[in-house]
Predict the 3D structure of the following.
Amino acid sequence: MKRIYKFLFILLFHLPFSVFAQTVAISDFDREDTRDMNFEIIGKMNSNILVYKNIRSNHKISIFDKEMNTLETVKLDFVPDRTFNIDFVSYPDYFIMVYQFQKGNILHCMAVKMDANAQKMTEPVEIDTTRIPVMSDNKIYSTIYSEDRKKIVIFKIQTRYQKFNMQSLLYDADMKLISKNRMLVDYNERKEGYDNFLVGNDGSFVFTYAKQSGNRDNYNALSLFIKSPQQETFSSRDIDLNEKYIDEVKLKIDNRNNRYLINTFYYKKNRGSIEGLFTYVWDKTADKQYASQFTEITDSLRYEAKSGGLLRFALDNFFIRQVVVKADGGFILAAEDHSTDTRGNNNNFNRYDYLYNPYSLNSGNYYYNPYTGYYRPLNSFNNQSTRYYYENILVLSVSKTGQVQWSNVLHKSQFDDEEENFMSFSTLTSGNEIHFLFNNDRKYQIISDQGIAADGTITRYPTLKSPQKGYEFMPSLSKQVGARQIIIPCAYRNNICFAKVDF
């Protein structure tokens, strides 16, 4: 039985009054929809919400109406056993599903077009196959798409015999092949990293390459790889780091201005503490550097951002989470303070291992999906006792030339043992304001809503509360499906359900 709740808040301004309303509709759940279930919010189609669900070899899509009543649950019987991952590219009235499965020692990558009722519009088509050795990584295919969803790239990466072997297939929105390319280069997995695979609206395939001088060093070399649809091969652009060091690199495409934005925290010495933000902008049209800027973070901002410890270590646990491009070519950058504490281990949190450990969940380019969060069932990956911390959010407004215009800090304190699905944050972009949504209560039944306007002004909106005890929100895994509408996964006892929130 679905549940609908409306909350009305009276806010006093210069006018007599203003009404702020939140409407929450929470779906029911099947008995099979337990916390062991993997899921992905596909999107909104013909006013309905589609959610993919998977438990072991059982694949299905639930269709909810605007009140989150279950209209139908469609079993994907055509999906074979040993299917390892499924990606979705959604449109207003249909979606494309790309999946890979293994049969013997052959990996098959398939694609199928489906309508808003989760019915096949075409039969599944085989995109590619790959023979893999025994005991090798079998999650080698990834799917990315452009901001306007008119270009889709399916690519595979294999790293064997000290070679980086990548093949990419560029399609249009109807899955018609535009181009096919391959890149084969020497590769040292201990010193080199490829990341940030993105495709622009013009079909250009881009990614970053970083290199370390030693096995336990920070990166001291950075390049941008670009391939237009008309090109046969990738071309690289070396980026001058001015003898500084970096680690985590975030690439964003500014399709409006045809530029590539690169952001990373930097160090003045290897394995030192974070000094500030490095911003690099490449102009694709002019084929040259547009801006390059190192911005040192001031002590006053460090003091406001830190959740504890010495001032010089204040930024060492911050990771760039999101970059939102503005119309003028500038952007809003959000970074979050994240750390872990493993009981019985003297090295509780190590930024280097978090970013570079080949066995870490946060590293590796063999299976890449930049669009969705990953729901981790409780105690699935670690037998040790681990406490997760997600603290303050640092928000910077950066101009198109890399100058920091203003900064702000959203204060929060989150921690939990063994599970992190209920922590961190998500954003909802509406007009000239970005809403930051996060749990600020260990019971996870209250979501804080803080909006940041274009000038950096923070507005604290009324909290979104669970309608009754037992519902726990997972905002970091949510997806915006409308101008002021978001789908937030939540847990009720041992089951997973979904809340549609209209702001």
Observations:
- The radius of gyration is 23 Å.
- DSSP finds two helices and 35 strands in the chain.
